[in-house]
Write a structure and sequence with these properties.
This protein is an alpha/beta fold. The protein has one domain. Helix content is 18%, strand content 15%. The longest helix is centred in the first third of the chain and has 14 residues. The two termini are 35 Å apart. About 11% of the residues have low confidence.
């Protein structure tokens, strides 16, 4: 009982400690002054995309992504560098259009399919 009480006191003191906070370098985004990191409202942000399937995903060819295979359109899903024009309607194009050209999402795509060891309902 004494051990449990000590553990609870330690957890509560850590939870309410004013010295615990995420460091600026620990998160993706930008900072301004002493505020916490955030995703910028303009400029560029670089992301990493991984295509994954559950072990029990249905076998369908309707979306160009058959089961147990890397999507045929994966390498065109996002631009690697900022552009003013886009050859394909991708994620970079979407964010550029929705922000009226003030925000760009760029990134890299993992070049292999990741399949989980578990079913979707896990």
């Amino acid at each position: 009982m004494k051990t449990k009480l000590q553990l609870i006191v330690i957890c509560l003191s850590l939870l309410f400690s004013s010295k615990l906070s995420a460091g600026v370098d620990d998160l993706c985004g930008t900072t301004s002054g002493i505020t916490a990191p955030s995703i910028p409202l303009s400029g560029n942000i670089k992301i990493f995309i991984v295509f994954a399937q559950f072990k029990d995903d249905p076998d369908t060819n309707d979306n160009g992504w058959p089961r147990n295979s890397y999507p045929a359109w994966a390498n065109n899903f996002i631009n690697a560098e900022p552009n003013s024009t886009y050859p394909w309607n991708n994620l970079s194009h979407y964010y550029n259009e929705m922000s009226n050209g003030t925000f760009q999402i760029i990134g890299d795509v993992y070049n292999s399919l990741v399949t989980t060891d578990y079913n979707e309902n896990h």
